[in-house]
# Entry
Amino acid sequence: MSSMFQGTIIGRLTQDPEQKVSSSGTTYTRLRLAWNHKKDEPGYIDATVFGKTAEVAATYLKKGSHICLAGARIEWRQWEKDGAKFSGHSLVGGDLIMLGKKDDDQSAQASIPNPAASDDDIPF
# Structure
């Protein structure tokens, strides 16, 4: 039996989204989210969304945007930068829900399902 580790997070972007195109032509956008565990104790996580979701994120989101990333796959990543080794969890895919501006009381302004999150893409 296979298992899947998914998560949902609500937070604010700590920087503007970074859109890129992979060597295979897939559009993806990197996001960095922050949330508060407790008062004055923030948490941070990177996320990557694909396809139309990536295009919408790059077009409409900016630093400080309040979002929910639901059903994202949680992965453990390791990387090296400037000779130093880093590791941490990362969210991949999921449905992006834009929750509104910082001073806006409205919620769920838009919900964009992630086409890359199809069960057909899972290799097992």
Observations:
- Residues 105-110, 116-124 have pLDDT under 50 and may be disordered.
- The longest helix spans residues 51-60.
